[in-house]
Specification:
The complex is a heterodimer of chains A (227) and B (224).
Chain A lengths: L1 H21 L1 H20 L5 H28 L6 H7 L4 H31 L7 H26 L5 H28 L7 H29 L1
Helix pairs in contact in A: 1-5, 2-3, 2-5, 3-5, 3-6, 3-7, 5-6, 5-8, 6-7, 6-8, 7-8
Chain B lengths: L1 H25 L13 H28 L2 H32 L8 H22 L3 H29 L16 H44 L1
Helix pairs in contact in B: 1-6, 2-3, 2-5, 2-6, 3-4, 3-6, 4-5
Classes of the chains: A mainly alpha (227), B mainly alpha (224).
């Protein structure tokens, strides 16, 4: 068991080190997030009161789009020099490889989200600090949903044609419940309303989604990687 | 023999469908909604047929992963395609009904949204298949995605239900008061749809088999 977690950690550290040396995925993702935030300002009046009501949705659209860029690179990075074959041939289970990669992606996706959040707050006058601890909880859960589904599908789409298109095509419909829950919760929290009553069920749904899809991914990842 | 059976089944489906249409056309108009209410005799059975197809796709996908027998992969792709057609029919009939009764073609109601998400999920399954050349990899990845999609469907339905709902409550199996012969018409139409689904699936299955034979012949030819 301890050996398993050490293997997970090795993969995570390897991925993070590779990413931090090139910064290709994180930089692209951050720049993309900023561009989407800019585009939103043309879509509607950014300083209207209504903006605050839809802010939860907007924020998660930014996160989902920018996150996909990070996730796309996760397995694609291993393609040159046949690194992916070497990783699969390594004496670690597919689950350890998957979890290691997912954790590395999680750190990167969260980093992008934590930068995009204050920028969003400044540009659109949204009080994102009002319920900060609870907002962090939603961010952590939502980002994990995005990461776990994105990582397994990143493994699924790494070798196929139109990879960049297929990943979001497959990921977003699956993520509908998680994104919807995160959007509902975030919209309430940035308007200063803590999680209570109605919204607790959304939180439960989000946790359930995370647990179910993590479990299914861990079961199926061996099939995806080895065939 | 199999050919004849398929033709007989297809003919039976057609005759039953024609009979149902005649019977349903003969029913009096519903008191509140008028003639448009009758679209429900198609709207509900195609939805149920689509659900059956999704379940069959799951069985085919799981069985393929367990046995690696390509017959199950062919089954999964065939029922998914037929199911998508049924679900599309469900969405279109619902949309027509909505235009008459609600005055709008579409609304982001719970059931409508979840049906659309399901449609997109399984359309993604077919897109994924098209993007992969190698048969074993295609079958494996498609099966994995199909399992993910099937697990996602109930979560989508429940979560969207909390979100908002405007769709009418079930008429047939939800405690509504429906005359006996109307109920029978709905059941018979369900039977017609199931028959039609089976015929289409079998036809598609044979196409898939022929395709695999052509592929293997081509590979043999290239080998020499």
């Amino acid at each position: 068991m301890i050996a398993f977690f050490r293997q997970v950690l090795v993969v995570t550290v390897k991925d993070l080190r590779a990413e931090l040396r090139t910064k290709e995925a994180v930089n692209a993702s951050l720049a993309f997030a900023l561009v989407i935030l800019l585009m939103f300002s043309f879509a509607f009046d950014p300083l209207e009161e209504t903006t605050r009501e839809i802010s939860g949705g907007l924020l998660w659209i930014v996160f989902a789009f920018a996150g996909t860029l990070v996730l796309n690179r996760s397995f694609a990075r291993e393609q040159p020099n046949d690194c992916l074959d070497a990783l699969i041939a390594a004496p670690i289970s597919g689950a350890a490889l998957f979890l290691g990669k997912a954790l590395a992606n999680y750190v990167l996706v969260l980093a992008v989200e934590l930068v995009a959040l204050p920028v969003f707050g400044i540009f659109y006058g949204v009080h994102w600090t009002a319920q900060f601890p609870q907002l962090m909880l939603v961010l952590l859960l939502g980002a994990w949903a995005l990461t776990v589904v994105g990582t397994i599908f990143s493994a699924l789409t790494v070798n196929i044609r139109l990879r960049e298109v297929m990943l979001p095509m497959l990921t977003y419909p699956i993520l509908v419940p998680a994104l919807m829950g995160a959007m509902q919760l975030t919209a309430g929290l940035v308007n200063g309303k803590p999680i209570s009553g109605d919204t607790v069920s959304w939180l439960k749904m989000l946790i359930g989604f995370d647990v179910i899809f993590t479990a299914v991914s861990l079961v199926l990842v061996e099939t995806v990687l080895v065939g | 023999m199999r050919d004849k059976l398929l033709f007989v089944l297809g003919a039976a489906a057609m005759v039953l469908l024609a009979r149902n249409i005649l019977v349903i056309a003969g029913f009096p108009n519903e008191a509140n909604q008028g003639a448009i209410f009758k679209i429900i005799f198609f709207h509900v059975p195609v939805a149920m047929a689509a659900m059956g197809c999704a379940a069959a796709a799951l069985v085919g996908s799981v069985m393929f992963l367990l046995t690696r027998n390509f017959k199950y992969d062919a089954l999964a792709v065939s029922v998914t395609e037929v199911g998508l057609a049924f679900l599309a029919a469900n969405l279109v009939t619902g949309s027509i009904w909505g235009r008459v009764i609600w005055g709008i073609w579409w609304t982001w109601d719970a059931r409508l949204t979840s049906a659309l998400v399901c449609w997109l999920l399984y359309a993604g399954y077919l897109m994924l298949r098209h993007a992969i050349e190698e048969p074993t990899q295609r079958a494996t990845f498609a099966a994995v995605f199909s399992i993910f999609a099937f697990i996602d469907v109930p979560i989508v339905i429940f979560s969207i239900k909390w979100w908002r709902t405007q769709h009418p409550q079930p008429v047939f199996w939800g405690g509504g008061s429906i005359p006996g012969d109307w109920y029978l018409a709905a059941v018979l139409n369900l039977l017609a749809m199931v028959l039609l689904g089976i015929v289409l699936t079998v036809a598609r299955l044979r196409q898939e088999e022929a395709q695999r034979e052509i592929d293997s012949l081509r590979r043999t030819a290239h080998a020499f």
